Amino acid sequence: MVTHVPAEAHGDERGALLSFVEAQRGAIRRSVLGLTEEQAASRPSASELTLSGLVKHVAEAELNWLRMAQQQPNEKARTEATWSDSFRLVGGESIPDMLAFWESVAKETEAFIASVPSLDDTFPLPEAPWFPKDGAVSMRWLLLHLVEEIGRHAGHADIIRESLDGKGAFELVAMERGESWG
């Protein structure tokens, strides 16, 4: 990791976990710094993944997990027919729109986690072949899963960005700070 995740206040597990989630979010946000919409939508490899698509996907994935934890319907739920749209911008969507949407989801996630009585509280998993029958997970599991999910895609974003213009994570952190690297 090229950024320092601040240590939690003694015993603040929620704060520590949310800090690690935010560190991974930051890596993906930085991957689109200074790019045009066209560059961010380009595919520099055989992969279907694009930087703008990754921003949208992780924002929608975080919202989906948040709604499951809240046990509320997901207003952006995908079907098999619309699944691929979660990996690309469509219908006039833009990177600034997706970043703003994700920021609102992140704030809602953080407020929700602050409001739950315990990270040991659980919520049911939906029926799916990859989940155990009648499965449930804790709020702690949710946060750890967000670190895993967003972190996995942050690695994809690193590779895509380097393939586009050679900029790596250290240079992007410097750019975000208005500094130069190297």
Structure description:
The chain has six helices and two strands. It has helices at residues 13-31, 37-40, 51-70, 95-115, 139-165, 169-176; strands spanning 122-124, 136-138. Helix 1 (13-31) packs antiparallel against helix 3, helix 1 packs antiparallel against helix 4 (95-115) and helix 1 (13-31) packs parallel to helix 5. The two termini are 18 Å apart.
How many individual β-strands?
2
Tally of individual helices:
6
Q: What's the order of the H and E elements?
A: HHHHEEHH
**Strand order, largest beta sheet:** 1-2
Gyration radius, to the nearest Å? 17 Å
Mean of residue pLDDT values:
94
- Biggest sheet features: 2 strands, antiparallel
Structural class by secondary-structure content: mainly alpha
Low-confidence stretches: none
Note the gap between the termini: 18 Å
Considering DSSP H and I runs of 4 or more, what fraction of the residues is helical? 40-55%
Strand content: under 5%
Shape: globular
Give the topology.
Elements: H1 13-31, H2 37-40, H3 51-70, H4 95-115, E1 122-124, E2 136-138, H5 139-165, H6 169-176
Antiparallel strand pairs: 1-2
List keywords for this structure.
182 residues, mainly alpha, two-stranded antiparallel sheet, 3% strand, globular
At a glance:
This protein is mainly alpha-helical.
